[in-house]
Design brief:
Blueprint lengths: L8 E3 L10 E9 L3 E3 L7 E3 L2 E9 L4 H10 L10 H6 L1 E9 L3 H7 L22 E3 L23 H6 L2
Antiparallel strand pairs: 1-6, 2-5, 2-6, 3-4, 5-7
This protein binds zinc ion (ZN).
The site of zinc ion has 8 residues, from helix 3.
Amino acid sequence: MPPTADPLRFHDCPDTVPVVPGAYALLILLEAPLALGLPGKLAVVLAPGRYLYAGSARGPGGLRARVGRHFRREKTVRWHVDHLTTAGRMAGAWCEPGGDECALVAELAGLPVPVPGFGSSDCRACASHLLSWPEGAAMPSRFLPPHFSSGSPTIRCIKSAGP
Ligand SMILES: [Zn+2]
């Protein structure tokens, strides 16, 4: 990654996410246990807590369209992570224009993997694209602490984006 690359920025609302291709890491809050029955995987129950999910956006609308979809709770469950974003709360997303999702996962490799293979079925490099972020666990310095423009991780954007 050249030193001139856009930095990793945290967005608590999709309106500020750039309309360019790139990678993102979602910050999702689960307030209740979530039972997951994923095809081909053992049933697991995710404990309440904070989760990070890395993905990339290459299509029309770029990062803003993809991250905006993750913020919406009303949607057809299509990807593994949709189970979390519909049952939990999207607190925000670190976005990196031009970035690579697996590189983000590699940076976060010190965090626990709650479900092996989650979101990474077609990825050979990563154990999982979903990580948990326990209280007190350090994040790489490039992941600056989340800044919430509304003062707390509320879901003002989800409310305005719903039907
Ligand atoms: Zn990967």
